[in-house]
Automatic annotation (TrEMBL):
Domain HTH luxR-type: residue ranges: 385-443
PROSITE patterns: HTH_LUXR_1, HTH_LUXR_2
One Pfam family per UniProt: GerE
Alphabetical list of InterPro entries matching this protein: Sig_transdc_resp-reg_C-effctor, Tscrpt_reg_LuxR_C, WH-like_DNA-bd_sf
Domain of life where this protein originates: Bacteria
Name of the protein this chain belongs to: HTH luxR-type domain-containing protein
Length: 449
């Protein structure tokens, strides 16, 4: 009798060989088809192949990197499997978020014991990715802080990247941008998953800050303005780039990015809007382009998946998007439901429903989405919310120190220093004393929108 495990190892080895010869698409298909064939009778073997698939799809095609990664994952340590299962299952919505939380807790408490440094990094990155999707951002920030402190001598970029994502999720894009930038500085390998992931996180942060020039320059500098490789981590770049393009008024470009993101996610069976809410952004692009039917269909799908998943942020954003698409035909009721889910974030209430909802959406790290919803609902995107980068300048001009600004915005002093460095570069100055003169001389051009 043929040992299916042995057959699985042969398939995995062949897949890595194809990958090394720049034939990654073929290798991923081979692993997926073999896993699907074996899953009904040999689910543990299928899990092994899924492990290979994730590892391969996350690995850049440098010979040394492939050789090192292949040696690490052909025989995965079973102590890492609870974290890996949480990572894989959190892509989909066939199990609710609470079930994934149980897996991540088990992975940390049981499987995280007696691991070496490399194994701990693998486990922690899988657990952290699952926690992003269960939207437990305060707990995730604490987890990342503990990992950064534990690995103080050899901090890995993923911890800062995940922390950037979490800070965006709780409406702190200033802190998120600083974390993502630091993550990129920690590695010189521009093909590595941590570096690409950090680039995506920084792109998201700049978009949320309405720092569109910075975001565009980042895409060009990182070589991500055109066609992107077929590795899993680039799905995040596609989604982030699509959000930026929508904010810049390029609905067609935004739709193309989100639909390409959807195609790639479809290959993994990824349906969870808490992972990448591509349907909501694609729906808004469709609506802007005049295809209301497609917009409603996608938005309804998003709401359905968000209800199955069960996290308030994902469901609140999905409902708010659906409400905007049918504002004059029952949308207000949907927006009221959305605010009930978003109310767990500490946001100052407003007597008017739409401004209150927009404030909640901005507070959970989706300012760019709030801007688009305003355009759809109100027909004019007038935004009375102060932009964080403008706040930095205004607070400095009022005489506040970096420490006082940091306390006022609930970020670190290092984050304030990071953003002022970029602001000074844009204004062509080198010190705080020249800020007032530079702002006056440029007038409205001094705004960083």
């Amino acid at each position: 009798m043929v040992d299916p495990r042995g057959n699985a190892r042969d398939v995995a080895a062949m897949a890595w060989q194809l990958h090394a010869r720049q034939r990654s698409a073929e290798s991923l298909i081979m692993l997926a088809q073999t896993a699907d064939r074996l899953r009904p009778l040999q689910p543990d073997v299928a899990d092994l192949l899924d492990w290979q698939r994730v590892s391969l799809a996350s690995t850049a095609s440098s010979t040394a990197h492939i050789a090192r990664s292949q040696a690490d994952v052909i025989h995965p340590d079973t102590r890492l499997w609870a974290g890996f299962q949480a990572y894989m299952l959190s892509m989909r919505t066939d199990r609710p978020a609470r079930a994934i939380r149980e897996l991540t807790e088990r992975a940390i408490q049981r499987d995280g014991l007696e691991l070496d440094e490399r194994q701990r990094v693998v486990l922690s990155s899988h657990v952290a990715a699952a926690m992003v999707r269960t939207e437990d951002f305060p707990e995730l920030l604490a987890f990342c802080a503990a990992e950064i402190n534990r690995m103080r001598e050899r901090v890995t970029p993923w911890a800062y990247t995940i922390r950037a994502i979490a800070n965006t999720g709780i409406g702190k894009p200033l802190q998120a941008a600083a974390d993502a930038h630091h993550a990129m500085e920690l590695t010189d390998d521009r093909k590595s998953s941590p570096w690409v992931g950090a680039c995506s996180a920084l792109l998201d942060a700049w978009t949320e800050l309405s720092a569109f020039q910075d975001a565009g320059e980042l895409l060009d500098r990182c070589g991500m303005a055109g066609e992107l490789p077929e590795y899993v981590v680039y799905n995040y770049v596609l989604h982030s780039r699509g959000k930026l393009r929508l904010s810049l008024g390029d609905a067609a470009g935004a739709l193309a990015d989100q639909l390409e993101c959807a195609r790639r996610l479809g290959e993994w069976g990824a349906t969870n809007p808490a992972m990448l809410p591509w349907r909501s952004y694609a729906a808004l692009a469709y609506r802007i382009l005049g295809n209301r039917t497609a917009a409603i269909r996608l938005s309804d799908e998003e709401v359905g998946h968000a209800r199955a998943w069960g996290t308030p942020r994902a469901l609140g954003l999905a409902l708010a998007t659906r409400a905007a698409l049918s504002w004059h035909t029952g949308g207000e009721l949907l927006l009221k439901e959305a605010t009930r889910y978003l109310a767990q974030w500490d946001v100052k209430s407003s007597s008017a429903l739409a401004p209150r909802a927009f404030g909640m959406i901005r507070a959970c790290g989706a300012a760019s989405l709030a801007d688009q919803l305003e355009l759809v609902i109100m027909g004019a995107g007038a935004d009375t919310e102060p932009k964080p980068l403008n706040q930095l300048v205004d607070m400095a001009l009022s005489g506040q120190s970096n420490k006082q600004i940091a306390q006022g915005l609930s970020v670190t002093t290092k984050t304030v220093e990071f953003h002022f460095t970029r602001i000074y570069q844009k204004l062509g100055i080198k010190r705080r004393a020249d800020l007032a003169t530079a702002v006056r001389s440029r007038g409205s051009d001094s705004r960083f929108l």
